[in-house]
Design brief:
By secondary structure, the protein is an alpha/beta fold. The protein is built from 10 helices and 12 strands. The strands form 3 sheets. A 5-stranded mixed β-sheet has the order 3-2-1-4-5, sandwiched between helices. Helix 9 links the parallel strand 9 and strand 10.
Length: 348
């Protein structure tokens, strides 16, 4: 049984958790959303400073909540890529310092690998191979999960990520930040068939369309033109209907690609991760389509959809059980492909 304390500071949540294999012993998440709302989005320098002020408190709270001491911790981990460089440095430096002081192994974890492992926290029996649909503010990808650290990207967005599109549409409609939860709530009272919006497609050089890649820039432009036309006609903007129609289109697009990819590769399970995994429209569409095609679809609990340290600890625990550790010279990277995860580790 491997117990890991992990730190996650890739963006605007200061998170610390302790996980024993796939069982969460404690999970502390200090969100910065109220701070960044006044700016309409995350300000990297502000995020870094907030992490500095919160990190020691979060570590202490995680230990207290778990009722554990350092002798019961086997390793220290932290997100090292991808993310905001300044924010990542806070968590990585804290983890390295703890690893040296407590004389524990250190592991740097890829943020997206963490989102894949979020599903393991509620489904301990889940094992590869399976298809992972990662949908967040910065990423929209279909990943063939072959084993711990072994991934193949089968599909991705060519422009905006799904979560980014939600934020931009919310800003367009002057709904506030972050856009995902606001649009989801508004869509509950709207008509998803009110407006016919285009589902983005990615053309192939030889003709036809890519079965797995996504595009949301055209959809974003279509909503902009819709709003402009309504304003030009002095019509009252039906915000609930616009939100519902937009969400319906995104959910339908993601579902179509995930199902096609799973069927083509003979994968019976689809595990969804990332902030957009909390979206009710996506959950409804994907669950219905998966049932129709006799596939299993798994969503993490809502508290583990957004950024958290429990998913980072879970990934680190699996790597540590296989003898993988990271050198204390490991740095942070703003961008790093998920297929390069193993460059973060050295064999034990």
């Amino acid at each position: 049984m491997t117990t890991v304390l992990a730190i996650e500071t890739s963006c605007d949540e200061t998170a610390v958790a302790i996980v024993n294999n796939r069982q969460v012993c404690s999970s502390i998440i200090a969100s910065q959303i109220p701070i960044h709302q006044q700016y309409g989005g995350v300000v990297p320098e502000v995020a870094s400073r907030e992490h500095l002020e919160t990190i020691n408190w979060a570590i202490a709270q995680a230990l207290e909540q778990s009722q554990m001491n350092w002798s019961q911790i086997d390793a220290i981990a932290a997100t090292c890529a991808p993310g905001l460089v300044g924010a990542l440095l806070v968590g990585l430096t804290a983890a390295k310092t703890l690893a040296m002081i407590q004389q524990k192994p250190f592991l740097g974890v890829h943020h997206l690998e963490g989102h894949i492992y979020a599903t393991y926290l509620s489904e301990p029996s889940l094992d590869p191979p399976f298809l992972s649909l990662l949908v967040s503010g910065g990423h929209t990808s279909l990943i063939y999960v072959k084993d711990c650290g072994i991934y193949e990207t089968l599909g991705e967005t060519r422009d905006d990520a799904a979560g980014e599109a939600f934020d931009k549409i919310a800003r367009l409609l002057k709904l506030g930040y972050p856009g995902g939860p606001i649009i989801d709530k508004l869509a509950q009272t709207g008509d998803p068939q009110a407006f016919a919006l285009p589902e983005g497609k990615v053309s192939l050089p030889g003709g036809g369309y890519h079965r797995y890649d996504s595009s949301f820039s055209g959809l974003k432009t279509a909503v902009l033109r819709l709003v402009q036309q309504l304003e030009k006609n002095n019509a009252q903007i039906p915000y609930s209907d616009v939100a519902a129609s937009f969400q319906e289109t995104v959910a339908r697009s993601l579902t179509k690609r995930a199902i096609a990819c799973a069927l083509d590769y003979g994968l019976k399970t689809i595990a969804v991760g990332g902030g957009v995994a909390a979206n009710s429209g996506l959950r409804k569409h994907l669950q219905a389509a998966a049932t129709q095609h006799h596939l299993r679809v798994l969503f993490p609990p809502l508290k583990f959809c957004t950024d958290n340290a429990a998913m980072i600890a879970c990934a680190a625990a699996d790597h540590l059980s296989r003898g993988h550790t990271s050198p204390l010279t490991l740095g942070v990277e703003s961008r790093l492909s998920l297929t390069q995860v193993m460059k973060l580790y050295q064999a034990g």
